[in-house]
Amino acid sequence: MSRVDAHLRLILGCLEQKDGDRLKEFFVLDLDNVPPSSRQVFEQLHHELNNNYPASKNAALSTKVKQFMPMDKLDKFHAPFTNSVIQYLRYLRDYLSNDNLAKAENIEKLVKQCIGTLDKDPYGAVMIPLVLSFVNVLRYIAINLDRNPDLVSEGKVKTSSEGDEGRITFVENTANIVREAFNRCLLHSKPDQPPNAESATSGIYSTINSSMKLYDRVGKLGNLTFLLRALDQKSPPLSYYPAAQRVTFLYYLGRFHFANNHFYRATQTLQAAYSQCHRDAVKHRKQILIHLIAANMCLGRLPGSIVILDQAAHDISKPFIQLSQIIKSGDIGTFRTFLDYTSSHNSEAQWFLSKKILLQLRNRCEVLVWRTLVYRTMKYAGSHNSEKGVMPFVRYETVVEAAQYSFFRARQRILQQANGTSHHNNPNYPSYKDPDFDGYEDGNDSASDSGSHHSWNEDVADSNPDVPTVEEINTIVLSLISQGFMVGFVQHTGDPTFARSRFLIPMKNRLSMGATDAQNRWKEIGFPNIWSVIMEREWENDEGMVPGWVTQEKVNKILEERGRPRVVHLQNAKAIG
Questions:
Q1: From which domain of life does this come (predicted)?
Q2: For the chain, which residues make up each domain, given as ranges?
Q3: How far apart are CA 26 and CA 120, in angstroms?
């Protein structure tokens, strides 16, 4: 028996046994990375195909394959599957003469042929491992082509249909191909029917996970929007799929929502991925924790014991802890410099940037820093006297001074790093600190030389464009109030410069309160818990359901909206895998 005949018989045997994992062993694309024992078989097959079925005898090769595939048994699966086998044998025959670009194009054709078989029951599900195996090889070739554009001639460059995005990279094109595989798996799926291991519905999450990984690599997770909408409408609950698929999907779904600034949704999915991740999968838990901690910080929840108790967090905890300390201190100047990735001294900012979380942390956490700055300024330099019925308040000009001091000290640190000097030995370093701010920061910076007050303010304003004006402080305070992060109101005195404007916290029954009670209550009234404020708002918007995450509750809601009865019998169904 010829090697081609033997190979076809083995393929047919795997198909009849519906063994997709074994089937992919007979469709090897990258011979260079195959073990020597298996490589010899494929090399013999390669030589026989070149000798007996060269390019001039493609018709004879097609006839040979079709003879081995019984049409009566395969039914609708026959035509797309035999075409896939023929395409593979042609690829294997021409393997050594192809460069990376030609290989990528041939594998792309082969993947598309195999995708056409996925929705053809009862053998479509058998092809899912094979499709994912092909995509994995195509991904490595695509990455190499994207890294070496000289390998691609201008005539081979694919242009984006959107026009403004430029060319579509080979990795993105691969993701688009896998997206079609996902659509095929979802085609006949119904949310009220458990996934069938012998149906293409078993591959819904394995294919979308593969697509997510590729889109993430090219920074285009936004392309998943329509896929997730289709998933919400047609997929069975995620809980019926294997744990590995669940964790991977929830991780990338969290990444998707994080990239779109939906941090509450991101925390829900990333927390679920972290909870379901195996305790020995330290590397995977670390990946999840990076975005989980970042998403929580954007919502005002700073990392706590998890960075100490979980081994997976040990290597990543330092930059997050440093950022947390800055947020707690309200040091806006240090915050800006700490997350300045353009500085050669900021390795933490570079690390945040490499993990694709820097911009979100800069935009969202700055709000928290300003809130803390207002709070600490009010604590140390505001008025809490309720004996005469006066509401607790802080003046804008005092907040401006605190911000100026913060920016000045941050700039001094940058100069120290550049010159290798300490500000304590620098005669030009201003020794002034407003007496009202005693205890605001560490005691080493406090002094009593109030004579340098005006020169310090002028120096800061002239040399640092980031220092806010009173008008900007007014905008910041009003923004914090409108978001619900501060509770109170602003009182203007008619001064167009806002110099004497102030933020006040209304307190009911303040006249009957003792001085001590009033001083303790103004914080909880005027500065509510940020996480609680955001959670209440997000719950009203989503009702606890995350787009893209198919749960049993979501399935029941969809069925009710369609006028169909709720499904309650799925708890007896077995999960696939």
A1: Eukaryota
A2: 242-311, 363-533
A3: 21
